[in-house]
Amino acid sequence: MTESSLPTPSAFDNLVATVARLRAPGGCPWDAEQTHESLVQYLTEETHELIEAIESGSSDDLLEELGDVLYQVVFHASIAAETAGEDFDIQDVAARMTAKMVGRHPHVFGDAGTQSLEAVVAGWDDVKAAEKPHRTSVLDGIPQGMPALALADKVIGRAQKIGLLETDPPALLPIDSEAELGPILLAIVSAAKAQGLDSERALRTALRDLQDEIRSSEQESDPGDAGIIAFPSA
């Protein structure tokens, strides 16, 4: 095959080649010395910038921030390809993700047939459980480093799925929309700050207690027979 007949590299191929060039001998010294650990701060920052673009940015902002997050993924894969004991590259990352998505969508790629949204969600949880049989708690796999509010939402959602928390707990506040919820949350944080209290730490502490209670309930009985843990009262 002559050089002129070679397929034109895709934009993604060019990005992978750019990262490789930056990390290669004679490339950028900073890029060459980075590790998975040293890049965590940039992944966190770029992720938050992407969220901001989704929530309040323009189409061009979204395009740029998606690129920044993609660059982090390619960067980590490049490091892994050169790290003994890891030995995978971006193609392996893509292959693993494709296999996971195909396996988790039997109603699309398998013979499960058309399903309702509720059935799809339930099946998703079953497939994930089969993929990770070593997990013994509904809380396993939840990143504890998530911001406290996001962590609270995830923990409560997991516990509700197996009946350890009420799906429709008694309303403590008359809230009908996020437009009403936002100012209330802001007022709580403001009141806490005025008293010298740390809202993030306070919620994390409450979440640790809740997770301990959930794990204890799981150990005492089968999830289907476990008693419902009451939401904290105001």
TrEMBL record:
Residues 34-109 form the NTP pyrophosphohydrolase MazG-like domain. Residues 214-234 are annotated as: Disordered. InterPro entries: MazG-like_dom (IPR004518), NTP-PPase_MazG-like_N (IPR048015), NTP_PyrPHydrolase_MazG (IPR011551). SUPFAM superfamilies: all-alpha NTP pyrophosphatases. Coiled coil: none annotated. GO terms for biological process: dATP catabolic process; dGTP catabolic process; dTTP catabolic process; dUTP catabolic process; response to stress; TTP catabolic process; UTP catabolic process. One of its GO terms (molecular function) is nucleoside triphosphate diphosphatase activity. NCBIfam families: mazG. PANTHER family: NUCLEOSIDE TRIPHOSPHATE PYROPHOSPHOHYDROLASE. This is MazG family protein.
